[in-house]
């Protein structure tokens, strides 16, 4: 055997070993979770109605209900781990959590982490009183609309609003909501997470979603290459859609029926 051919054999063997290790490591992820009897779930501690701290100091919300249902499918306990927007990807890749809730998909993120299917709607909606007839962007003509300045909502509304519409920009969501419910504006444009709080509390005004400006649903993220875990999560989500569990969570926390089309990206 020549030096060259011998070297090629060593390289081939090394590549095979690395590939085998990768497959074994991937297979061990599900095994590790089941062996531990617990799945560590990264979740925002203050992101109502998806997650927030209740009066008894427990964490509740849409994300919590979905995470617990996935835990039941896996046959393990769910341990909620507080994360934030800055540390959550590091927590995932450092194996401090096994999956993350409420992650928006992007091609850039997909280079670093794996994505299961969409499980939660995130969309920007125009909200107005039940008595006000608004069916699409053209109907905003002559209306005054509140929005949080410099946000994705602001960008989407500015793009869609007719020239005769007046956009009033506020520094935070509390100011947007206050302007709308006090009658300073006819409408407001907010994400469905913010809108859910208004739909629940303002029974006299009877606000409702009029139409959507854009949709970018939330996904569950896992470590790159965890195909078995992704498949299991996707199966659990499909079951929750089919048996109405996801709809029940949506009506409970988001105050609106689950629509499958809201789990599809639309810009």
From TrEMBL:
Major localization class: other
Signal peptide location: 1-27
GO CC annotation, single: cell envelope
UniProt cross-references to SUPFAM superfamilies, sorted A to Z: Periplasmic binding protein-like II
Keyword vocabulary terms for this entry: Signal
Family assignment from sequence similarity: Belongs to the bacterial solute-binding protein 3 family.
Organism, as annotated: Paenirhodobacter enshiensis
Name assigned to this protein: Amino acid ABC transporter substrate-binding protein
Pfam families registered for this protein in UniProt: SBP_bac_3 (PF00497)
Record-linked InterPro entries: SBP_3_CS, Solute-binding_3/MltF_N
Keyword Ribonucleoprotein assigned: no
